[in-house]
Amino acid sequence: MLYTTVTPAEKRERFRELLAAPEIARFPGAFTPLSTKLIQEQGFEGVYISGGVLANELGLPDIGLTTLTEVATRAGQIARSTDLPCLVDADTGFGEPMNVARTVQELEDAGLAGCHIEDQFNPKRCGHLDGKNVVDTATATKRIKAAVEARRDPNFVVMARTDLRGVDGLDAAIDRAKALADAGADVIFPEAMADLLEFERMAEALDVPILANMTEFGKSQLFTTQQLHGAGVSMIIYPVSLQRQALGAMERLLTTIREDGTQQAQVENMLTRKRLYELVDYNGYNQFDSGVFNFEVPETPDA
Length: 303
What we know:
Blueprint: H1 8-20, E1 25-28, H2 35-41, E2 47-49, H3 51-57, H4 68-79, E3 86-89, H5 97-109, E4 114-118, H6 137-150, E5 157-162, H7 165-168, H8 170-182, E6 187-190, H9 196-205, E7 211-213, H10 225-230, E8 235-238, H11 241-260, H12 273-280, H13 282-286
Parallel strand pairs: 1-8, 2-3, 3-4, 4-5, 5-6, 7-8
Helix pairs in contact: 4-5, 5-6, 8-9
């Protein structure tokens, strides 16, 4: 009830355990606090919070327009709604090394279990778009060193994302990943890998875990959990899947209302009122303290 009873420190410890485990960790992307309830119920290991998704929810493209305050606030709302560890996209760290340091501490305070910081120019663009600009190795490693030095909880995961694969090729991306790991990155996020062999080569070249981004309509194929695990991947994110599915359903509903004059044809595809009440735990709130605050949850059909 209210928020999770699992502390941020416990979630960070859990995140470290997941990264060290032989099994692969799956982090679907949440775009609202309520969507974390579904992710947790389905038995996933963690929650991912995409910078692109947060920008899109504000009606903005993913080109570095969101601020640290906006990201930390929304990510914190999402993180405290679930028992699972949450990884957030911190873009380029919202500035130079001192800004990166502040970013990490703000995200720690917001209850996140970790963040990833990338090596694009600031402002950045979506990792699966063409025409990206990537900073030099010295600049990229300074960001990671600043993040590592700034964290107060040693279990807060600092992940380094490199977009160099789409600019200078796989060998350059591997060299950059090694430098980022040497700078202190706990995990490497190699963006826009072309195939399983590239994931395998990246994993073999590093002594830290790697992440696979299974976003739809991107540069990478949508490989299965088993395929990625076999290639040496330790963690998978599905950053925009829930948002895309939800928006597709909204669009279909609005079209139905416009064309039919009623939503009736789409009602069978909706989450029922009963199910929504279960997700937000009406009964738990009702039982909290009936002597202070009480209400009746109506008996409703499954509608």
